[in-house]
Amino acid sequence: MNYGVFICRIPNIIPLFSLSLPKLFIHILDNPHDIKYKVQLTSNCWKSCSPQHGHYPPADQGKLTFQNIENGTTIRIKAVHAQTASQGKTLAELAEKWDQGFTFAPIRESQVSRAMTRRYFKDLDTYAESDVVIVGAGSCGLSTAYMLGKARPDLKIAIIEASVSPGGGAWLGGQLFSAMVMRKPADAFLIDLGVPFEDEGDFVVVKHAALFTSTLLSKVLAFPNIKLFNATSVEDLITRQTADGNIRIAGVVTNWTLVTMHHDDQSCMDPNTINAPIVISTTGHDGPFGAFCVKRLVSMNQIKELGGMRGLDMNVAEDAIVKKTREIVPGLIVGGMELSEVDGANRMGPTFGAMALSGVKAAEEALKVFDERKAQNAY
């Protein structure tokens, strides 16, 4: 149960912050003992506040103290119930007692059905009007979601992934090998994520690509404002005509992937929709579901033609993908290898730094235009 959100913007006029190590006391009106505080600090100018975000124990006398916070910092505090110990048995209590009366708690099959369907359809209702839709849950799309989730916990973010299993090609390195290589400075993303690596000078190596992807995925799914709809395809884009006769993207058209794959041999089955002022497409290079959004732009005459992905050149490709991550048409930002199809960029092969940092830049680009696109998306 949430007790509410307290947001405080520190103005520049408070004399307290003229001190070398200023302190700020945040007063929480309701402070029962079973509450913890989830704190996130966001600012363009903060230098040293550790931890930047995290969980704090119940505050003494309704106060939280933050040190080394600069002027202009925004503080968001969300009070939630602290997790309590499970009323069930511990694993230690279960150990080696499987033949001594072990049994699962009773359940009726309909309870399972209702537990799943109630939550899923509630999510469909909640995210039918989203703030950001990310198409594709590969390494770039998940990196985008991670950055947006950290920066803007107030936004509703839906991720649409055609496959049952998110992660794209980032579960392995090249040629079915385990290790994942990232060129510097992408190690900064790994450090932020908390993924260990071996430093090889100009590049770093994660011992197994699945360690990176599973860590990133788990952190993204833990954000309360992000919902992943996997086994779901984007079949089209929602558009609005602009004053100059072009279009603005206003959301996506979705369907279950199994339905999408069988339109040719089954009767017509209409799709669903999600409205959003920002769509971020990270569907990878051309393929059955790859580069979908940019291919759709061509068919709608918003792009004359695709440039087509060129041969492999790691040094050229990774720089180009990150630098050119951008809004292609109003409301549609493209990142990752889908950009190679737009710009005729080189492929990069089994190195993943550009995927992560393209996601970082895609999140930045989205936040730059979000307020403007949201105002335009009122209808």
TrEMBL record:
Q: Any one cellular component term from GO for this entry?
A: cytosol
Q: What is its main location?
A: cytoplasm
Q: Which cofactor does it need?
A: Fe cation
Query: MF terms per GO, please?
Result: cysteine-dependent adenosine diphosphate thiazole synthase activity; iron ion binding
Localization terms from the record: Cytoplasm; Nucleus
The record lists the catalysed reaction(s) as: [ADP-thiazole synthase]-L-cysteine + glycine + NAD(+) = [ADP-thiazole synthase]-dehydroalanine + ADP-5-ethyl-4-methylthiazole-2-carboxylate + nicotinamide + 3 H2O + 2 H(+)
Record's keyword annotation contains Ligase: no
Q: Which residues carry this modification: 2,3-didehydroalanine (Cys)?
A: 268
This protein is called what? Thiamine thiazole synthase
Native source organism of the sequence: Sclerotinia sclerotiorum (strain ATCC 18683 / 1980 / Ss-1) (White mold)
